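Progress report, Aim 2. The chain analyzed during this reporting quarter is listed below.
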Amino acid sequence: MIQQSASNASLGRGFGGPGKYVQAPGALRALGEYLNAYGPTTFILIDRFIDDLMGAELRESLAKAGVTAHFELFGGECSAEEIDRAVTAAKNAGGHSVVGIGGGKTMDTAKVVAVDLKLPMIIAPTVASTDAPCSAIAVRYTSAGVLDTGLFLMRNPDLVLVDSAVVAAAPPRYLISGIGDAFSTWFEARSNLEARCDNFIGHRHPPTAAGIAIAQKCHEILLRDGLSARQAVERGALTPAVEAIIEANTLLSGLGFENCGVSAAHGISDALTELDAAHAYLHGEKVAFGVLCMLVLEGRPHEEFVEAAEFLKSVGLPTRLEDVGLIDASDADLDLVAEVALKAGASTLRTSVPLSTQMVRDAIIAADANSSALGHGPAWRGGKS
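Predicted structure tokens for the chain:
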């Protein structure tokens, strides 16, 4: 078990997280009661699908609590243009708080709006596909869906409200994708610890003992409950295993990555967005394959690679280039991914091993080959949207 480095620990401590986290079936039915604590008016950025599905129920909850809300439909991409549009809409609407209801990009946009307007930030994820909800980080993309930059915000959400019944009822692919994102948490925490990198709290803080313990617990829960949770949501069931995985994907992974840092799994995953063929795949699906690439890049024992690949296969996550749409990726494509994975500020640089474009490209090729040799493929449940 890796512990805090004594030399890093002497630099101080830094830990961040949401003001409050609430997870329960039916939690969104109490949205009005929670928002009333922040003031009588609110601005809500919401996914169109969620507004169609339960907009009437949300409006009823708000009305019963005496909260007046302006609902704004999310435009589909957390881009500079969409952020500017949402900020303008929120200014025009007024309100005592900003709420983001929907998927990761909706939530990230709402975070930036809340920080820009200096208003309380309430995040209500309707899927558990990423660990974004609890963090003070927003990932901005171009309007074409290519990664632009990570935005490090001044504060975390005031409230994260997770309706586990809604999350469990979403297409299973989203929960499975969240497992892929969360599966990187401990591996990347370990990478940052070995490289003695700072976490994402700011002011050059190393990971805290609490952050390390959370990352390890997240990994433990994924291995224990991941397969059971997948099987349950595929049958429309909300079980204790599903609740545990929702917490691991959303809270534990969110706290783990923000307080320990990310590394090459995310760096390679982010670089894959340079290739159009990978755009149809969810963030956590690409991160899952990125974990395997990172294990090769860092020279981890083959037994560890096999264990990770077998777990990912068991829950239905990608283990090969083919699984993220890149069966026909050319040498030039992989060179581009490797170059982007090593650009200034890229997460791949937060490792303790020497790095080069050739090493990253070869790690991707080897991870694909290793997984293919294990006979992977049939259990993959994703695919193009």
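The chain is about 50% helix and 10% strand. The first strand starts at residue 21 and ends at 24. These observations will guide the mutagenesis work planned for the next reporting period.
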